[in-house]
Design goal:
Chain B: Belongs to the PyrK family. The complex is a heterodimer of chains A (about 325) and B (about 300). In chain A, the strands form 4 sheets. Chain A has an 8-stranded parallel beta sheet with strand order 3-16-15-10-9-8-7-4. Chain A has a 4-stranded antiparallel beta sheet with strand order 5-6-14-11, with no helix packed on it. A two-stranded antiparallel sheet of chain A has the order 1-2. Chain A is an alpha/beta fold. Chain A starts with 6 loop residues before the first strand and ends in a 22-residue tail after the last helix. Chain A has a single domain, classed as Aldolase class I (TIM Barrel), CATH 3.20.20.70. Chain A is built from 8 helices and 16 strands. Chain B has about 300 residues and is an alpha/beta fold. The longest helix of chain B is centred in the C-terminal third of the chain and has 13 residues. In chain B, α5 runs parallel beside α6. Chain B has 3 domains: about 100 residues, Beta Barrel (Elongation Factor Tu (Ef-tu), domain 3); about 120 residues, Nucleotide-binding domain of ferredoxin-NADP reductase (FNR) module (Rossmann fold, 3-Layer(aba) Sandwich), CATH 3.40.50; about 60 residues, no CATH class. The two termini of chain B are about 15 Å apart. In chain B, the strands form 3 sheets. Chain B has a 7-stranded antiparallel beta sheet. Chain B contains 6 helices and 16 strands. The C terminus of chain B is likely disordered. Classes of the chains: A alpha/beta (about 325), B alpha/beta (about 300). Bound molecules: flavin-adenine dinucleotide, flavin mononucleotide (FMN) and FE2/S2 (inorganic) cluster (FES). Flavin mononucleotide (FMN) binds next to β6 of chain A. The site of FE2/S2 (inorganic) cluster has 12 residues of chain B, from loops.
């Protein structure tokens, strides 16, 4: 009997726990050339902002060992085009839409949440908090738990009650658990982690930073242990809060690792650039991992690494 | 459309050959060969299953053949660790390939005169284009340049398919000493040309575009911008391109290109976000119809 892969994120049930990570799969259209987008748990869209954004200049990306250093600057078409073109396309293909949003002030996030709540078919909203706060000299909202909480609160207040709001956290903070608690107290229904890790590479030929932005974000398998630690610690502190785990997931085994650490779902990002079919491959591998272990329900494994030895889930 | 969708395959290597300064790899990839149109490229995963190299390497398709259900050939010079790994592949090794990718060269409807300009390894996509143009009764003139003789691409093939073939090398070791853009005006003077196709480094494309404009000839360029995915999801490969509506957008060269109309590419602004690009800092929505003012692609 094949295992039950369903997973619950607040009041939403997904057919399986494998999602795309924000900014690594557009709104699903490009990947649909390689697999049926309706087969994965959900598509988390590239963070959408109110207005169109040109992003940062090239070079935007440098390859680092088992990772990528990137600084793309949230290039995108803006909410209007997203609602007219991208969201309907994804829904028409039977995809579940988790819409990631980003802005420069709580009011901008609130406006995005309102527009998305009016549109039919949004499964969840993910709040990308790694965005410069215009009222605080461009420090990221994640740098200040109170500022992050204000954004989450604004989004929750303007989002239809049946749409869960997940706060996406950055690992580059002094106290991740404090940030997570602040978001949950501001009524986040769940947490997504982690965003990219601050990093830099210098091109020794040009003797200049390898990406035009100078400092960028590192993603890919290189950051997986950092991500697993973040999920583990936050789950320990907030065991009832659902987590979407991500950071370097490459195989079904990696996805399983995130579940054991406490994630209820797992998002695949950078590895999609390497393998456009990664999500469905990882889903298949994940299912095989459960079968091999005789696990009947994926949900039983969430946070299993926190249980004392000998208290592993029933098979 | 769906017939032109790219496919991902694990393709067996048929042969790896040394050709002067280049390696030529032929793989069995029927799905890619059958969909291929000139100007399209493949994105190859390098380093094996557990590779630490996460971005795919882009290579123009140099040739497709019907053998074994369909083969694809690409040529490359070793540059960094990805191409070094590829150079060590042997026949029957498997390569994870996605293709064919990108917008192909638009083809003229009538049997017109075409000048094909290429620099170094960038000349690769011009060869299948030349064959296609010849089959349509077009006249083809080649201008191929490189740093030195061993980097001039397929000179013999060029001479065979083209009416004329002009070669330039930086060191004068083959053909005319100088750059393709030094030789191009003469070629344009000698034959009444209707269209120019060019691929190679950005500075070369900029000059070819400027020359073609001077002769009032339309030019199609294939740009070579750094890529990571090749499939349009990573937003690495952007170049500033002016749309039909006159608005500049940061276009993805892997899906909106690599082939663009030369005069639409803002060569002087490559590597920047032009202040008037859609969504540039300070840019303000002008109340246009949002769908026509959308991001490229
Ligand atoms: C559409 C297109 C077609 C191309 N066709 C050919 C071809 O037919 N023959 C050929 O020899 N080369 C071609 N190139 C360039 C080729 O992709 C690079 O030489 C190759 O990626 C270098 O990889 P590396 O690991 O050896 O170098 P590294 O410097 O180690 O690569 C590091 C990273 O930078 C990227 N990168 C580096 N140089 C380039 C470049 N010039 N263009 C794009 N990405 C780059 C790589 O993909 C990788 O992500 C093409 C590039 C593009 C965009
Ligand atoms: C090119 C690129 C673009 C990204 N864009 C976004 C984005 O728009 N919003 C967001 O919340 N995270 C974004 N991320 C972060 C990813 O969603 C993810 O959190 C991170 O990359 C770690 O996962 P990975 O190692 O599987 O890529 C982006 C990452 C990359 C590499
Ligand atoms: S290379 Fe990834 S979007 Fe073009």
């Amino acid at each position: 009997m094949s295992p039950d892969l369903r997973t619950r994120l607040a009041n939403v049930e997904l057919a399986n726990p494998i999602l795309t990570a924000a900014g690594c799969a557009g709104a699903g259209r490009e990947l649909a050339q390689f697999f049926d987008i309706a087969r994965i748990g959900a598509v988390v869209t590239k963070s959408v902002m109110l207005d169109p954004r040109a992003g940062l200049p090239a070079p935007r990306m440098a390859e680092t060992p088992s990772g990528l250093l990137s600084a793309t600057g949230l290039q995108g078409p803006g909410i209007e085009v997203f609602l007219q073109r991208d969201l309907p396309w994804l829904l028409a293909r039977g995809g579940r839409a988790v819409v990631s949003i980003a802005g420069g002030s709580p009011a901008e996030y609130a406006e995005l949440a309102r527009r998305l709540s009016d549109a039919p078919g949004v499964t969840m909203i993910e709040v990308n908090l790694s965005s410069p706060n215009l009222a605080d000299q461009g420090r990221h909202f994640t740098d200040d738990p109170a500022a992050a909480a204000r954004v989450v609160h604004a989004v929750r207040s303007h989002t239809r009650s049946d749409i869960p709001v997940f706060a996406k956290l950055s690992p580059d903070v002094p106290d991740l658990v404090e940030l997570a608690v602040a978001c949950v107290q501001a009524r986040a229904d769940g947490l997504s982690m982690i965003n990219t890790v601050r990093g830099m590479a210098i091109d020794t030929t040009t003797m200049r930073p390898a990406v035009a932005g100078g400092v960028g974000g590192v993603s890919g398998p290189a950051i997986r242990p950092i991500a697993v630690a973040c999920v583990y610690e936050v789950h320990a502190a907030l065991p009832d809060v659902p987590i979407i785990g991500m950071g370097g997931v490459r195989t079904g085994t990696d996805a399983l690792e995130f579940l054991l650490a406490g994630a209820s779902a797992v998002a695949v990002g950078t590895v999609i650039f390497h393998d456009p079919s990664a999500c469905v491959r990882i889903l298949r591998e994940f299912e095989e991992e459960l079968e091999e272990r005789g696990v009947r329900r994926a949900a039983d494994l969430v946070g299993a690494a926190h249980r004392p030895m000998g208290a592993q889930p029933a098979r | 459309m769906s017939d032109f969708r790219p496919v991902q395959m694990r393709s067996p290597v048929l042969t790896v050959r040394r050709v002067d300064a280049y390696y030529a790899v032929t793989v069995v990839a029927p799905g890619i060969a059958e969909r291929f149109r000139s100007g399209q490229f493949i994105a190859v995963a390098v380093g094996g299953e557990q590779s630490s190299m996460l971005s795919r390497r882009a290579f123009a398709i140099h040739d497709v053949k019907p053998d074994y259900g369909g083969t694809v050939e690409f040529l490359f010079a070793v540059r960094g660790k990805g191409t070094a790994w590829l150079a060590e592949r042997r026949s029957r090794d498997l390569l994870d390939i996605v293709g064919p990718l990108g917008r192909p060269f638009p083809l003229p409807r009538d049997p017109v005169n075409c000048v094909l300009v290429g620099g170094g390894a960038g000349s690769a996509p011009l060869f299948p284009l030349a064959h296609t143009l010849r089959r349509r009764g077009c006249r083809v003139d080649f201008v191929l340049g490189a740093a030195s003789a061993d980097r001039v691409f397929s000179a013999i093939t060029a001479r065979r398919v083209a009416e004329t073939a002009t070669f330039t090398t930086d060191d004068g070791s083959f053909g005319v000493r100088g750059r393709v853009t030094d030789a191009l005006p003469q070629v344009l003077e000698d034959a009444p040309s209707d269209v120019v196709y060019a691929c190679g480094p950005m500075p070369m494309l900029r000059e070819v575009t400027a020359l073609a404009a001077r002769y009032d000839i339309p030019v199609q360029v294939s740009v070579e911008e750094t890529m990571a995915c090749g499939t349009g999801v990573c937003m690495t490969c952007v170049v500033p391109v002016v749309g039909e509506d006159g608005i500049t957008r940061m276009a993805r060269s892997c899906v909106d290109g690599p082939v663009f109309r030369g005069e639409r590419v803002r060569f002087d602004d490559v590597g920047t976000i032009p202040f008037d690009a859609l969504g540039a800092p300070g840019w303000k929505a002008r109340g246009d119809d949002p769908v026509s003012a959308r991001e490229a692609g």
